[in-house]
Amino acid sequence: MTRQPFDEFSKQLFEALLSPYGRVTIDRTVAGEARRIDIYFEPNETIQPNVNELGLLANFSTRKCLFEPFRSSLSRIDVRNCAMKLYNLHAEILRAAERTLPDSELPSLWILAADVSGSALKEMMRVKIESVA
């Protein structure tokens, strides 16, 4: 039995509505490649980053965050993969907390790249990832 009645209801509803038109699979397992976060940062609450030493990086480092640096041009697929890492981490943290957390307590994502295509920028806006020009 599910802990979330709405979750069970929505699955049953979609299955009832869509099954006449095709195959509906509930709780389909998605196999995926292992993903690794390049850099995960958790700030020390007692020490503030020094802006003179770190520059813009000090502003990025005020809360938990993922850093995903790219040496080559960033593509839409790269953005999606980074977003997937972020959202998987959010899900892991929320499961461990067993409660809803405000966005300010969840890590943010910083994608660092020397060159970004227009389509990658559009993808960032679509998935609502913070970006700095």
Radius of gyration over C-alpha positions, nearest whole angstrom? 19 Å
Share of helix among residues? 40-55%
**Helix run count:** 5
State the end-to-end CA separation.
47 Å
Order of secondary-structure elements: HEHHEHEH
Tally of separate domains:
2
**Strand count:** 3
Strand order of the largest sheet: 1-2-3
- Rounded mean pLDDT is 80
Tell me the fraction of residues in β-strands, as a range: 5-15%
pLDDT < 50 stretches? 129-133
Major β-sheet annotation: 3 strands, mixed
Task: Give me the secondary-structure category.
Answer: alpha+beta
Oligomer: single chain
Report the principal-axis shape.
Answer: extended
Characteristic terms for this protein:
alpha+beta, extended, disordered C terminus, 133 residues, 3 strands
